[in-house]
Amino acid sequence: MRGKKGWLAGLLIGIALPALAQFDTALPARAPRPALATMATTEAAYRIDGARHLYLNHPERIHDGLLPPFLHAIAGVRTTIDAHGRVSRIEITREPAVAREVLPWIEHLIRAAEPYPRPPAGLDTVRWDEIWLIDRSGRFQLHTLSEGQQQAPDSADDEADEADSPPTGR
């Protein structure tokens, strides 16, 4: 019995390690792209500039097109940018239910994109809330710029529920 358990444990580790490797914080060394000037006049408007800046700095990590119906992780992140476009604070406002290995990866991507556009005129700092939508391949979209999500295939449970429901009169 020990042989089977050991073999199974080895198999599971062999499958899990490559999956976690995609969220490794070691990114290819390259200079961050310069921050574009923000046209935003409020923190809410700055959210778009911050998201675009992240996309420009990590094009190889962006999921192109509709996201799959089931995501690997969803995380809420609040980032504070100082007067010089530097990240002064990263706060996780919603942790993923299961895939917590993405949190240091997200923080690394945010910091690697410095400097950000400076805050709007009249503000010393800007706080920007974002929802990270991450697929199994390690690519992401930010809710601010998301292209949407594919529909999940219909399940047998949905069809059974429809059969039990009263007619709608249509």
Automatic annotation (TrEMBL):
Residues 1-21 form the signal peptide. Residues 145-170 are annotated as: Disordered. Residues 155-164 have a biased composition (Acidic residues). It comes from Sphaerotilus natans subsp. natans DSM 6575. This is Uncharacterized protein. Keywords: Signal.
